[in-house]
Specification:
Elements (H helix, E strand, L loop, with lengths): L2 H21 L1 H14 L1 H8 L3 E2 H7 L7 H13 L3 E6 L8 E6 L1 H4 L10 H7 L2 H5 L4 H6 L7 H6 L3 H6 L4 H25 L8 E5 L5 H9 L4 E6 L1 H4 L8 E5 L11 E5 L7 H14 L8 E9 L6 H18 L4 E2 H10 L4 E7 L3 E7 L1
Parallel strand pairs: 4-5, 4-7, 5-6, 7-8, 8-9
Antiparallel strand pairs: 1-3, 2-3, 8-11, 10-11
Helix pairs in contact: 7-12
The structure holds S-adenosylmethionine.
The site of S-adenosylmethionine has 17 residues, from helix 12 and helix 13.
Length: 363
């Protein structure tokens, strides 16, 4: 037997398996999207216990010829941990049957739960986010430095696409995805609540529909919270005495307050634009002197402390931000360059909520 050839063959087949895993990663994402669109998690949740294939197909109103398809979809989704497979006793002494239950990730798809992340699945796997990748070679070879992949593929920026009259459903979808992320944040916020203590006013810059401000307002009703975003996002929203919505442009100026919150904002922008936003934030808190602060909630890429899977997720996020907005997820050194570049004197990073970090920035 020729060992060198057999080693080579085994390396080759391992490499092929490895490559195919990367190629077919998308099938897992698409199977998850189908499960979300079908409402499989909601059906299991309403059933109140693990559900058999036939029961599930009936509740989902599937055509009887598609039961085998549902079985195969669930075979993948239970294998990868999104759903659980178990057995339930058969009816009237019949044999046990396979049944499907929820797992922690699929519980996040149940629409009646406050921590539902179905809008994120819908938004992240929307055709507008996927189709642009077909233009990546054109984008990388064309001589237009600031054009995003999204613009190169569609001829308009993602913000233009969202704000078009005809695409108002897409704007709602995007805002719902942001609101879902903020809702989820409720738990993480408990760990970071101390950063809001002692403040009398706070501006939530690019705060969307105010999901996060509402949580802060619930916990600290005496803080005067202002949600500051584009007119088309906040014009129709109203709050109360200590929660108000103000329309404006963060590149022009930001209303004054003790503190500014930037959650999930700076990663949408390149360094030059982020510097401009941070300088406007510094101006907004200048009335509070050294006691003012900017509270940033974002990803910190940290390959030395994070495990491989978490870093991979953060790096994937980075490419999403790059392709849609020319934005970026940043490493510690890049955060420092921005913070000191905008004229702040110190900062403190606290990891929260798995993927995100809380970065307090001081004048
Ligand atoms: C990724 S979302 C973040 C929303 C919110 N901070 C959250 O975490 O739910 C970015 C927000 O930036 C807002 N935005 C974009 N350009 C803006 C500008 N020039 N001034 C103010 N807000 C802006 C968008 O309308 C959008 O709501």
């Amino acid at each position: 037997m020729d060992f060198s050839t057999s080693n080579e063959e085994s390396e080759l087949s391992q490499a092929q398996t490895e490559l195919y895993k990367h190629v077919y990663n998308f099938v897992g994402s698409m199977a998850l999207k189908s499960a979300m669109e079908l409402g499989i998690a909601d059906a299991i949740h309403s059933h109140g216990k693990p559900i058999t294939l036939l029961e599930l197909a009936t509740v989902l109103n599937l055509h009887p010829s598609k039961i085998g398809v549902l079985h195969r979809l669930l075979r993948l989704l239970t294998h990868n941990g999104l759903f659980a497979r178990t057995t339930v006793p058969g009816i009237e002494g019949a044999e046990e049957e396979t049944a499907y239950g929820l797992t922690p990730p699929s519980k996040l798809l149940v629409k009646s739960n406050s921590t539902c992340l179905a809008p994120i699945v819908k938004g992240a796997l929307h055709s507008s986010s996927l189709d642009m990748w077909g233009s990546s070679k054109k984008w990388l070879t064309e001589d237009k430095e600031d054009l995003t992949l999204f613009e190169s593929a569609t001829g308009e920026s993602f913000w233009e696409f969202l704000n078009k009259e005809t695409e108002s459903d897409t704007l709602s979808m995007f805002q719902e995805a942001m609101a879902a992320d903020s809702n989820m944040f409720k738990l993480a916020l408990k760990e970071g609540m101390h950063v809001f203590e002692g403040l009398t006013s706070l501006v939530d810059v690019a705060g969307g529909r105010g999901g996060i401000s509402k949580l802060i307002h619930e916990a600290f009703p005496d803080i005067k919270c202002t949600v500051f975003d584009q007119p088309q996002v906040v014009a129709s929203l109203s709050g109360d005495e200590n929660l108000n919505f103000v329309a404006g442009d963060m590149f022009m100026s930001i209303p004054p307050a003790d503190a500014v919150l930037l959650k999930w904002v700076l990663h949408d922008w390149n360094d030059e634009q982020s510097l401009k936003i941070l300088k406007n934030c510094k101006e907004a808190i200048s009335g509070r002197g050294k006691d003012g602060k900017v509270i940033i909630i974002e990803i910190l890429i940290d390959e030395t402390s994070d495990d491989r899977e978490l870093t991979e997720l953060k790096l994937k996020y980075d490419l999403v931000l790059l392709s849609m907005f020319n934005g970026k997820e940043r490493e510690k050194k890049e955060w420092e360059e921005l913070i000191y570049g905008a004229g702040f004197s110190s900062y403190k990073i606290t990891p929260i909520c798995g993927i995100k970090s809380l970065i307090e920035v001081f004048p």
